């Protein structure tokens, strides 16, 4: 029976992303995770990132990407009059303490949309407008920071084909680190919202962040950690999961997480025990991306700290999923795609330009 240390359990919290690629040929993190968002990529949250600004350690950056393969299988605009929101837990109870809401206007002839950023502190009044302008612009945020929204390179990088062939048993011949490494997501774009605000905007350096989208009021998607819905929620319940809040995850979904983990085994064929599955589920619920905004470390640190654009999460996950070995002897610790196809920037908006 496999024994899980505390560190390993934290690492196992990221297994969901790498296994999630089996669900969709274009799937990364949370792309195309449920029927409702598959019908409209504009409200399909692909990834959530949160990290200390590399150019100003007094600021924290939050990024939400939508529209998987923008311009190919999705459009490249935002849904007018719908809400794109960053939800903030400042007290560690999984409840919203602060809320950033971004809304867009109708698409103009030149492709631009108006944009408005508002913030609400729960229990302290209504929304306050912090910035207005148009997509494609770098807007100053009242109180400090910046906002932009538009089409950018998809920041995810991974040799998906080799993973499907070698780990998922798809029957292909591609192998890891064989000199034929291909970043499956190279050349693909997404629509992204990039919001940078002072760390002092929050009551604590240690916060939880998740994103959500709402259409005409009701919530249609939400995401914190990568691929939670993609992997751990049964197909008939995916929309229901997306329409609930993290504060209910322990009561409503943690047992589902555990039940699903029981079906996941290591590549050596050793199944998880009930205790192991329960331990992993307890880490994964609630689905919130936690970050110490005073710490410049990222996703690959222990415990997991936010998620930076350049974090090579796949390498960590390969070690965890395979136990560091593949085929009985060969160490499997990398897909040999170690960086994005184009460099990220150290300055706002950090993402690479669109292809």
How many separate domains make up the residues? 1
Shape: globular
Low-confidence segments, given as residue ranges, are: 1-28
Q: Provide mean pLDDT, rounded.
A: 84
Secondary structure category:
alpha+beta
Distance between the terminal alpha carbons, to the nearest Å?
Answer: 48 Å
Give the number of DSSP strands: 14
Strand and helix order: HHHEEEEEEEEHEEEHHHHHEHEE
Helix content: 10-25%
Biggest β-sheet: count, sense, barrel? 7 strands, antiparallel
- Tell me the radius of gyration: 19 Å
Strand content: 15-25%
Number of helices: 10
Write structural notes for this entry:
There is one protein chain. The chain is an alpha+beta fold and 355 residues long. It has one domain. The protein is built from ten helices and 14 strands. The strands form three sheets. Strands 3, 4, 5, 6, 10, 11 and 12 form a seven-stranded antiparallel beta sheet that branches. Strand 13 and strand 14 form a beta hairpin. Helix 8 (254-261) packs across helix 9 (274-284). The longest helix is centred in the last third of the chain and has 11 residues, at 274-284. The chain is globular and about 55 Å long. The termini are far apart.
